[in-house]
Amino acid sequence: MIASAQCRAARALVEISRDALAKLAETEISVIEQFERRLAKPDAETISRLQMALEAVGAVFHSRKREWQRRGSSAEVQPFLDEATRHS
Fold first, then answer.
1. d(CA 87, CA 66)
2. I want to staple 54 with a disulfide (CB 3.0 to 4.6 A). Which of 3, 11, 19, 59 is the partner?
3. In this structure, what DSSP letter does residue 41 have?
4. How far apart are the first and last CA of the chain?
């Protein structure tokens, strides 16, 4: 399931308006706006529809868990996490 920041960023990257996303995901524009602004969290089904709609127009989502699994053990990943948090 995607987070609000992922929704906002993906929408910007694939250049789709809230209105167009709302139509594709069969939801209201206000639901997307509130989700992206972290004012409210829609139910899991709505978030899933948003993600599927974004993927249908070209967005690709990767979970951190899958990335860690590809790289190896958490001990191997820790240096990358430490470096990333230093620059945050």
1. 23
2. 59
3. -
4. 23
Strands (E), the chain: none
**What is the reported pTM?**
0.72
The position carrying tokens 């829609």 is: 42
pLDDT in tens, 42-54: 999 999 999 999 9
CA torsion angle 53 54 59 63 (round to 10): -90
Burial class (CB in 10 A: 0-12, 13-18, 19+), 14: middle
Can you tell me the distance from the alpha carbon of 9 to that of 71, in angstroms, rounded to the nearest whole number?
25
